[in-house]
Amino acid sequence: MKAIKVKIYPKKNQIELIEKHFGCNRFVYNWALNQKIEFYKQHEKSISEAKLMGLLTKVKHEEGKGWLKEVHSQTLQQSIKDLESAFSHFFRKNNSFPKFKSRKNPKQSFRFPQGFKVDHDKHYIKLPKIGWVRFKDKFNVPVNAEFRNITISRKNNKYYASIIYDDHQKALKKKKPTKNKTLGIDLGVTYLATYSDGTKTDNPRHLKQYQQKLKETQQKLSRQERGSKSYEKTKLKIAKIHEKISNTRKDFLHKLTTSLVENQDYTSISVEDLAVKDMLQSKENNKHMDRAIGDVGWRMLRTMLEYKCEEKGKNLLTIGRWDASSKTCSKCGNVYHALKREEREWTCKKCSSHHDRDINAAINIKDFGIERFKRSDSPLAER
């Protein structure tokens, strides 16, 4: 399964219909969440998805609820399915308890499970009850791809379409990881990435580039009357600055990960599975360190590497956060326990090898990733 997201340009009457879908789907989601909460209070068990679907049909025929019939019925059913998915993640302890949706949230969305069409050549998407909507972005999707669903969203008064599709392409055959064909990556804050071949990628510090502008706009917002038109305009400006920061970060990481995966010198990439949430909650960090960790985008980089390596038939080797250490000499394996956080270079007392801390860590990540792969149940590891 793959996904593509494009910006769409609906006409004025189409925007009204899209906004109706946002409102109706938000209402159904909140109604279903309330039903589940009240049902559990009374019966101490959860109401089923099928039961909610049946109750929704009755709600649509209630007096004063006729506006629910103005939108596509399957999108309303998808809202209930999304709620069930949210509860599933909650019970698996992946997310917090589902919250009620607010119309004030700048992010709104709804989903069509079927019935939509895509015109590749003319760059139009046909949405049920809304019609043909234009988009401009590149649409690098095979003509024979099977579309599964489409999500329409709004963020900061801009509209987007995210399409899930199956291109029916077979997975490429992967080669067995070897030392000279594997690249180890140590992620950091001073340098975004340090590689086992001795090169480094600087941290662009996207937030810092816009921090002064963001600060000035936030100060302006604090002086305005809450709820006024000027307040809402300034609030939107702040949201757009955050969006700009997010877009520049995403663009940079896309270019970086593409260059890494398309590098023909390596058939495998080894990285740490960093627990970013735990690192942000660490008592050792100050607010500046937390901000820097949040801005660098390690998790996004890891996600991009995962699907791009899969597309190109390359191995992504992941190791635990504590499996490979910068305190361990990559030459002889001796551990320098006294290495302090601020020390960026050190010399091994056993073999006298001089190390750049980050490069040494990247080499250890590469070596440990290969060893872990050999011990795994992968068919490649058995060759």
Structural summary, described in words:
With 383 residues, this protein is of the alpha+beta class. It folds into two domains: 2-166, no CATH class; 179-382, 2-Layer Sandwich (Nucleotidyltransferase, domain 5). The chain is 42% helix and 20% strand. It has helices spanning 12-43, 49-60, 73-91, 206-222, 229-261, 276-280, 287-296, 298-312, 357-375, and strands at 2-9, 107-112, 117-119, 124-127, 131-135, 146-155, 158-166, 182-187, 191-195, 200-202, 268-272, 315-319, 345-347, 354-356. It has a seven-stranded antiparallel beta sheet with strand order 2-6-7-1-5-4-3. A hairpin with a 4-residue loop joins β3 (117-119) and β4. The longest helix is centred in the middle third of the chain and has 33 residues, at 229-261.
Q: What's the architecture of the largest domain, going by CATH?
A: 2-Layer Sandwich
Which shape, going by the Cα principal axes?
globular
Number of helices: 9
**Cross-sheet strand order for the largest sheet:** 2-6-7-1-5-4-3
Quaternary organisation: single chain
Briefly note the structural class of the backbone. Answer: alpha+beta
Spell the H/E element sequence: EHHHEEEEEEEEEHHEHHHEEEH
Strand count, sense and closure of the main sheet?
7 strands, antiparallel
Query: Terminal Cα separation, in Å?
Result: 29 Å
What's the CATH topology name of the largest domain?
A: Nucleotidyltransferase, domain 5
Helix content: 40-55%
- Rg, rounded, reads 25 Å
**Beta-strand level of the residues, as a percent range?**
15-25%
Provide the low-confidence segments as ranges: none
